[in-house]
Each structure stands twice: as structure tokens, then as C-alpha cells.
Design goal:
The protein is an all-alpha fold. The chain has one helix at about 75-100. The protein is built from one helix and no strands. It has one domain (about 1-75).
Length: about 100
Amino acid sequence: MLSYVDHFNFNWMTNYIYADDAAPVLPAGTVLHITAWHDNTVNNPNNPDPNQWVGWGDRTVDEMAHAWVNVTFIGDEDYQSWLTEQKSKQIASAAARARK
């Protein structure tokens, strides 16, 4: 899972940008599957009419599940360098935990 937004509020309309040390780096050929759930029940205090049928659409009165994903390409050499750095960090972190 790359991102999870619980209890989304329509008024947020914001971007979620990863910190540099938390941004996912994925190997070439990775396929992303985007899944969204909507609570159209009476339990959702932001739902003005749970009896109203709501379908998918681009209008703000429709259910929308848009996922804008920005991708930055890095070459194989840069990916391998990043991977080596991450493995070094994991080894150092494991060693630090073992010393405790």
C-alpha cells in the first residue's frame, strides 16, 4: 500500500506529497492498482441523503475516485544506487536495534 486516506473530507482537496525519505521507489514494470471505497450510508455524517442513488461521474455531485499519480523516471543505475543505499540503512538500523 502506497497511500491510505481514512475519513476523507471533500473540503480537503489537497495533495499528499511524500517526504524524500518516505517516497516509494518502484522497479521498472511495477503496476499500480487504485482502489477507492465510499461510505454512502446513514453512518456517514457528510452524506446529505443516504437514500439518494449515487453513481460514478466527473461532477462534484457524483462519486469520484480520481487518483493523480506523479511519476519520476530514474534509470537503472540510479535505481541500483538507491537500492544499495536503502539496504545499507536497513543493515545499520538492524545493528542499532541489536545493540539495545
